[in-house]
Design a protein that fits this description.
- The chain is an alpha/beta fold and 309 residues long.
- The protein folds into two domains: 16-214, Alpha/Beta hydrolase fold, catalytic domain (Rossmann fold, 3-Layer(aba) Sandwich), CATH 3.40.50.1820; 225-302.
- Helix content is 42%, strand content 16%.
- It contains twelve helices and eight strands.
- It has helices spanning 16-25, 72-79, 88-101, 115-126, 129-132, 148-151, 154-159, 216-230, 234-250, 256-261, 263-275, 279-298; strands spanning 33-42, 47-55, 61-65, 108-113, 135-141, 163-168, 184-186, 210-211.
- It has an eight-stranded mixed beta sheet with strand order 1-2-3-4-5-6-7-8.
- A hairpin with a 4-residue loop joins strand 1 (33-42) and strand 2.
- It is globular and about 60 Å long.
- It starts with 15 loop residues before the first helix and ends in an 11-residue tail after the last helix.
């Protein structure tokens, strides 16, 4: 795999550098050409977008959209999906796909992990028709879904049959919001939220290892979150997410790495920041979190009643 001079690809998982080395030395991917890399992060507009293209070598190209990185603004944009029909990264994905498609010929494959899969589907749904016809497959790996407006759109209907949607057994992120398409369940070597990492997905020599259904814990989280969100209107969701984001910002937490590297210090700052918020904001946070616990209590039977699966 070769990238243009001057472009440095960053990694999130500790396994990434070894994976890139293995890909570079493999017969299948060693001669792939990487191009069109972009990385756009802006706290003011609450966007975290990154993508690149891969010349496969068989006349086709793969447009890869990055999932959420470790930045706080990246996760904030994800949570904005709970009350926004469209987020900035989705619009950026459409623009990126159209720009790159104009520069290359041949069939196109799109894909991504987590938010990257969401962006791939959105870009395919809303790009120009002449580009849409060139797309052969869209791969979505444990990606959050959409609001009903996207699912019911004519553009989504056109590309729906080309979507390959995969989730791990205990999927949490991939069960969020609506997808409008079937999914395949993949076995994972981890449990809970750790299954979101693709490095935990089990494979054979030429395919993924599939499971019959998601776990009861995945269904429990899915029903709890859906129940919780249905009890909140868009304004309440927005105010709650904005309040939590502001508290973390005031605590000098800019990334998940900040929390991991000095979590004791970060927790102390977060508690202090909560204490400095106004009473109305504190009441909003406590009330919203209480609703989440009530929702969990109402759906606790999902963990034990297999017949409902």
């Amino acid at each position: 795999m070769h990238s243009p001079p001057g472009i440095k690809l960053s990694s999130i998982f500790k396994e990434d550098p070894q994976l890139i080395r293995d890909l570079s030395s493999s017969k299948r991917f060693g001669n792939c050409q990487l191009f069109g890399f972009v990385n756009h992060v802006n706290e003011d507009s609450e966007i975290q977008f990154s993508a690149l293209c891969i010349d496969i070598g068989d006349g086709s190209s793969f447009v890869a959209f990055r999932g959420t990185d470790t930045s706080l603004v990246g996760w904030k944009e994800d949570f904005n999906m709970s009350f926004k029909e469209t987020i900035p990264s989705q619009l950026e994905a459409v623009n990126y796909l159209e720009k790159m498609a104009a520069m290359i010929n041949g069939p196109l494959r799109l894909g991504g992990h987590s938010k990257g899969g969401n962006l791939a589907i959105y870009a395919a749904s809303y790009c120009e028709k002449k580009i849409k016809h060139r797309i052969t497959d869209i791969y979505s790996n444990d990606a959050p879904g959409f609001h009903g407006k996207v699912i019911s759109s004519a553009g989504y209907a056109e590309i729906k049959s080309r979507i390959h949607f995969y989730i791990p057994q205990s999927s949490i992120i991939g069960m969020f919001l609506e997808h409008g398409t079937e999914y395949k369940v993949i076995k994972s070597s981890e449990t809970g939220l750790m299954q979101h990492s693709l490095y935990t997905w089990e494979v054979t020599h030429n395919d993924l290892i599939y499971a019959d259904e998601v776990t009861s814990s995945s269904l429990f989280v899915d029903k709890t979150v859906r129940d919780w969100l249905s009890a909140l209107d868009n304004d309440q969701r927005e105010r709650f997410i904005d309040a939590v984001y502001q508290i973390l910002n005031n605590s000098d937490v800019k990334s998940l790495g900040d929390l991991e590297s000095s979590w004791l210090v970060s927790v102390g700052r977060i508690i202090k920041s909560i204490g400095n918020t106004d009473e109305a904001t504190r009441k909003l946070i406590l009330k919203t979190i209480s609703e989440l616990f009530f929702s969990a209590g109402r759906n606790i039977d999902t963990l034990f009643n297999k017949e409902k699966r």
